[in-house]
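Notes from hallway chat w/ T.B., transcribed later so I don't forget. T.B. wanted the structure written out for a chain they're using in a teaching module, and asked if we could keep both sequence and structure tokens in one place. Agreed to drop them here.
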Amino acid sequence: MTSDSTPRVDPALAAGNRRSLAGYRAAHFRWEAADGVATITLDRPERKNPLTFASYAELRDLFAQLRYAADVHAVVVTGAGGNFCSGGDVHEIIGPLVRLAAPELLMFTRMTGDLVKTMRACPQPIVAAVDGVCAGAGAIVAMASDLRIGTARSKTAFLFNRVGLAGCDMGACAILPRIIGHGRASELLYTGRALGGEEGERWGYFNRLVEPEALLTEAQSLARELAAGPTFANGITKTMLHQEWSMTIEQALEAEAQAQAICMMTEDFRRAYRAFVGKQKPKFEGD
């Protein structure tokens, strides 16, 4: 197997370093886990759920731990109070940043980028449930998720240039064009304008729109559907979707051949065959 085209097995995971996260106690947001689905709720509704240095770091570390979670197979990210996330807290992040020197600023931007890295590296599909304001770093968290369900009243804004920064924040110039296309991504990143819910659905940013009162229920229902599927194979799908961005077609075909051969060695694959022969619905167990 080639080093640049094969899903890697983490040595710690291979050594049995799996853990339960159902009882995880979050310090800077709400965390609930049941039936294989975890829900992360950004919970500062009075400020439209902004992120702080501490919540950035906790989210980064939590998504890193999810790589080893034995009891979480899909994740929902949402916000409290009718909004998703207003971005970095103006008083707790933006204010301090203007007083920092270059080395400290680079430490911060690398830390925020690490949140996106851990979101993309965890094997669980992530569903963003987006209502109301979804701006700045909040737009990035939704973008870095695997699927997005929105509402007609949602407003997504990559507003970095509105505060004198480049649009290339936390992977936006790499990921957003792959979701909505280069021209549309350029428009949002150059202007910082808000993308409404219906326009976002037309552009492919949202997989679908639902009524606000049904948003969390729909997102969790989708997550449960994913969690009930072949979770090992779903993790491989997520890995391949991410890794194949930088591959040629020939490299991608070889990587997928190897990845699929690995999946064919799983018990879930054999369960699916036996269920098909028996005209039953397969019950996947992730092994």
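Follow-up for T.B.: The CA atoms of residues 135 and 204 lie 18 Å apart. Might be a good example for the class.
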